[in-house]
Specification:
Number of domains: 1
Number of helices: 17
CATH architecture: Up-down Bundle
Largest sheet: none
Structural class: mainly alpha
Low-confidence stretches: 1-18, 435-445
Protein name: MFS transporter
Order of helices and strands: HHHHHHHHHHHHHHHHH
Strand content: under 5%
CATH class: Mainly Alpha
Keywords: Cell membrane, Membrane, Transmembrane, Transmembrane helix, Transport
InterPro entries: MFS (IPR011701), MFS_dom (IPR020846), MFS_trans_sf (IPR036259), MFS_Transporters (IPR050171), Sugar_transporter_CS (IPR005829)
Subcellular location: Cell membrane
Membrane topology: Multi-pass membrane protein
């Protein structure tokens, strides 16, 4: 990848002027943190506007019937979002967080208009390429900015709030888009939400959000090595290539988190394209399909308000292992069911399992990555995680075409069980609780 030999260092860059010196902590940065939570809710809403509607649009307006072909828009979204995550991490370390956030929202402007006007499926795929860039740049950047603000002691809580806002908005917007589609048709009403979200996000990001790189510099100057020496090989001055290799393959906690993240979004990508079609086999109305689809990210989003903070108290590893196992069980319930009740129970359980894992994996990255290359580590992790969208869409489409919808869900259940085993064997506990360490716990030396 271009630029992997670069060594941008937080400590060597000019500090952005602010009205007061930066301080770490959730309470100390409550106003900015709340604004970032609101912006990330708008990021999630951009996905929610289309999740219920596009699979039905593919069948009803474009006459698409092959599952693999229908899932192309999910694959296009996942691949471009994964690539955008890399650039979000690299550019946020090099140029600052706020410019990346603003550029990400500029890519969102054409998306709802393209979906409204699309004369063929190619327009839908192209819109999801732009949406993937928007999501990768904006969501990754809000993650890094929140980690910057809160410091090491509250990372789990910060990620829980961030992901709860994002996926809660996915759920609410999916439900609202389903209602609008049933009342007013598949186009244009559901996609008017995206126009409003983009305008509000540009206002908040451009006028009210402040740069947070100074907070990362502050933490970098305060961190101390772990007493057990487990991170002695991870120092501040790593190249982009070294960061990529450590996060992807060689560092046990980072690489275990990366594979678990990929499987999480494999499940999400498969559900995005497949669940509405599976639920439609029972001749459920659009609004009820929208409710079923909203249950998964709804429980996922709300649950993270608890699980993120819980990981700060009990640690990361066992919560992740339990969450991956719960997802496997939930997918088995969905595959074995054939009506609203069973599918509702399965999607609620799937949301609960994902809530255990999603913010906790991000907290693991924050625990292990040095503040000087945190943005890039988050970016690499999210490259692998969001490739799961494409893997889930393609795998789900192929298996559904060859064997059936239920078989595709069973396959995802098996993959989730294997992922849980990998975390149990490979990941070590990354969180040092504040009661046992100094205020800089969780940073690497």
């Amino acid at each position: 990848m271009a630029g992997m030999s670069q060594r941008p260092s937080i400590s060597n860059e000019a500090t952005v002027p602010t009205s007061r010196p930066p301080r770490l902590g959730l309470r100390e940065n409550a106003a900015q943190f709340a604004l970032l939570v609101a912006v990330n809710a708008l990021v999630g809403g951009m996905v929610g506007q289309q999740q219920t509607v596009l699979p039905l649009l593919a069948q009803d307006e474009f006459g698409l019937t092959g599952y693999t072909f229908i899932f192309t828009y999910v694959a296009a979204f996942g691949i471009t979002k994964a690539a955008a995550n890399w650039f979000a991490g690299t550019f946020s370390d090099r140029f600052g967080r706020k410019p990346v956030l603003l550029v990400g929202w500029l890519f969102a402007i054409p998306v709802p208009l393209m979906l409204i006007l699309a004369p063929n499926w190619g327009w839908v795929v192209a819109a999801n390429v732009l949406l993937g860039i928007n999501q990768g740049l904006t969501w990754s950047t809000t993650v890094v900015m929140k980690i910057d603000l809160v410091g090491p002691a509250r990372r789990g809580m910060a990620m829980g709030l961030n992901e709860a806002a994002g996926y809660g908005a996915v759920a609410v917007t999916s439900l609202l888009a389903g209602y609008l589609a049933e009342q007013y048709g598949l186009r244009p009403a559901p996609f008017l939400l995206g126009i409003a979200y983009t305008a509000l996000a540009l206002l908040l990001s451009g006028v009210f959000i402040r740069e947070t790189r100074g907070h990362a510099r502050l933490e970098a100057g305060q961190h101390t090595p772990r007493a057990d020496g487990i991170h002695d090989h991870l120092h501040a001055d790593l190249t982009d290539r070294q960061i990529f290799v450590q996060t992807s393959l060689t560092e046990p906690a980072l690489s275990a988190a990366s594979q678990a993240g990929l499987v999480n979004n494999l499940n999400f990508g498969l559900s995005w394209g497949l669940f509405p079609l599976l639920f439609a086999t029972a001749d459920l109305p659009v609004a009820q399909i929208g409710l079923l689809f909203a249950l998964y990210p709804g429980v996922w989003g709300a649950g993270q308000l608890i699980t993120g903070a819980l990981s700060d108290r009990i640690g990361r590893k066992h919560l992740i292992t339990a969450g991956m196992t719960t997802q496997a069980a939930a997918l088995a319930v969905i595959a074995a069911s054939n009506g609203f009740t069973g599918w509702a129970a399965g999607t609620v359980l799937l949301g609960a399992g994902t809530a255990m894992v999603y913010p906790t994996l991000l907290a693991v990255i924050g625990d292990v990555a040095h503040p000087a290359w945190r943005g890039r580590a988050v970016g690499v992790y999210r490259v692998w995680r969001d490739l799961g969208y494409a893997v889930g869409a393609v795998l789900g489409g192929i298996v559904a075409d060859l064997v059936g919808l239920d078989a595709a869900v069973w396959a995802a259940a098996g993959i989730s069980a294997v992922s849980a085993a990998v975390v149990a064997v490979r990941m070590y506990e990354t969180h040092r609780r504040p009661s046992r360490t100094s205020s800089s716990a969780g940073s690497v030396g």
